[in-house]
Amino acid sequence: MRIGILNSGGDCPGLNAVIHGVVGAASKLGWEVIGFRDGFEGLLPPGDYQVLDPEDTVGILKLGGTILGTTNKGHFAAKMGEGTKAEIAEKVIEKAKRTMKQLEIRALIVVGGDGSLSTALQLFKAGFPVIGVPKTIDNDLQATAMTFGFDSAVSCVVDAMDRLHTTAVSHKRVMVVEVMGRNAGWIALWGGIAGGANVILMPEIEFSLDKVATHIKEREAKGNHSSMVIVAEGARTPEGDLVTQENEEGAEVRLGGIGEFVASELAKRTGKDTRACTLGHLQRGGAPTSLDRILGARFGVKAVKLAEEGRFGRMVSYQSYHVSSASIEKAVHKLRLVDPESEVVAAARAIGICLGD
Ligand code: F6P
Known about the structure:
binds 6-O-phosphono-beta-D-fructofuranose; single chain; Rossmann fold; 2 domains; about 350 residues
């Protein structure tokens, strides 16, 4: 028996832990694992891959990135987001099928987020024996309570907040920190609560800059001369616009710049010295946290189990501290956003965090 694994989309701390879990569990069954390079692109004939023996995965659990490489571009790229569908050309699918047949791959484990799992679903419908593993720092996949990589991104945000806090206090400044997460505010919300933010701005909650400015001025009046504002890259301006950057033609829109915008508007409205800091890809790089190592390894083991049981079209899912599975269909095409009425949002408000509304 031979199975394949590929990572697709943006990289994410914990990818190597999944590979470690898959190779470990598969070798116990006497199966061979083929790792396709650079996402689905590795499936194109003649196939770009490497055989993954247990020795190849020694020591990779703790490494960031992925030993297999990944891409969010190429022949199989599906746009992410609400209501999007992967539409991979038939010719490309046929080519990938040929490679699968030639290599006698009996199960293909796809480790990806919404876009990559949409592609995986299309391949499954075209007859590929696909198993999904939910990956994204954005934590925005349906059908799982958590994706691996999210905890590492949040821990990077918290570390940055701790550092920025001391300089903000020293200079009596307002510090605006822009974080990733695309159209979901999970990283901003969790990073903001854990990092001691005074203001959190997210795509899910419309904000008013005047209200944020009033909150900062009220803090000032009480003797708190510095404030920490965290803003998700996908938060819209009060006019409802997304702040974006140039990206290659046909590629997913690139978010970024809202931090600078919010900082300059707050400077005008509060008269305070204000600085913006964009954390960017720091949030995706580096070693995974212990939680992401454990999640990754468990997700990899579960993916092999699903393959053993022939439960194709399923995605590994994390629910109530248990690793189970859900259909890939249920996980994609609709993002899991922060519920403004949820307990965690209420908790943020209860501890005095301003959400700008
Ligand atoms: O989806 C993960 C993510 O890191 C988003 O949070 C971010 O908007 C995007 O990928 C960045 O993508 P790229 O690496 O192509 O700049």
